[in-house]
Design goal:
Blueprint lengths: L2 H10 L6 H13 L3 H25 L1 H12 L6 H21 L3 H19 L4 H17 L6 H9 L1
Helix pairs in contact: 3-5, 3-7, 4-5, 5-6, 6-7
C-alpha cells in the first residue's frame, strides 16, 4: 500500500491528515529509536572528555600540580594526592565506559569529580557539568545498554 493509497480514503471522506496525527506518528517513531545507541554515545562522549583531561594533566605534571595547588582549590585533599587521584579516575573510568564494563560503578567517581569541579573549581561552567551529569546519570540509572560487556556478562550469568 502506498502513501497515496492511504491518503485517498481520507481525501474522499473530506478528512485531511492533521498536524496532531503527524506529530503523534513522529513521536511514536522516535520512541522506537534504540536506547542502546544513546547509551553507547553517552559512554563514548564521557570517556573522551575525561580521557582528554587526563592526557592534558600528564603532558605537564609540574603544571598540573601547580594548578591543583593554586587554581583548583580542592578542599581537604592536598594537591600531591588530589592530582594523582584525578588522573587515576580519568584514565581508568573512560576505559571501562568504552568497554561497557562495570559501567554503573565507573560512573560514580566521575559523578563525584564532576560535583567537585562544579562546586570548587569551575562553578561558572555549570552548563558543561550539567550535560556531563545528565549523561552520567543516564548510565548510572539505565546501565551500559546491550552494546556492552556488562550486557554480555549478565547474559552469561543467567
Amino acid at each position: 500500500m502506498t502513501m497515496t493509497m492511504k491518503m485517498e480514503p481520507m481525501m474522499e471522506t473530506g478528512m485531511k491528515p492533521n498536524l496532531l496525527g503527524r506529530v503523534r506518528r513522529l513521536t511514536d517513531q522516535l520512541g522506537r529509536f534504540p536506547l542502546s545507541i544513546i547509551q553507547l554515545t553517552a559512554r563514548i562522549s564521557m570517556a573522551v572528555i575525561f580521557w582528554r583531561s587526563a592526557q592534558a594533566k600528564l603532558a605537564n605534571w609540574d603544571l598540573t600540580l601547580q594548578l591543583f595547588a593554586n587554581e583548583y582549590h580542592v578542599p581537604v585533599i592536598p594537591p600531591e594526592i588530589a592530582a594523582p587521584m584525578a588522573v587515576a579516575v580519568e584514565l581508568s573510568c573512560p576505559v571501562l565506559l568504552v568497554l561497557g564494563l562495570f559501567t554503573r560503578l565507573a560512573t560514580l567517581p566521575m559523578i563525584g569529580m564532576t560535583l567537585v569541579i562544579q562546586t570548587f573549581v569551575y562553578p561558572m561552567a555549570w552548563v558543561d557539568h550539567l550535560t556531563w551529569m545528565t549523561m552520567l546519570l543516564l548510565l548510572l540509572t539505565r546501565g551500559a545498554g546491550i552494546l556492552s560487556l556488562d550486557h554480555l556478562a549478565s547474559k552469561a550469568l543467567r
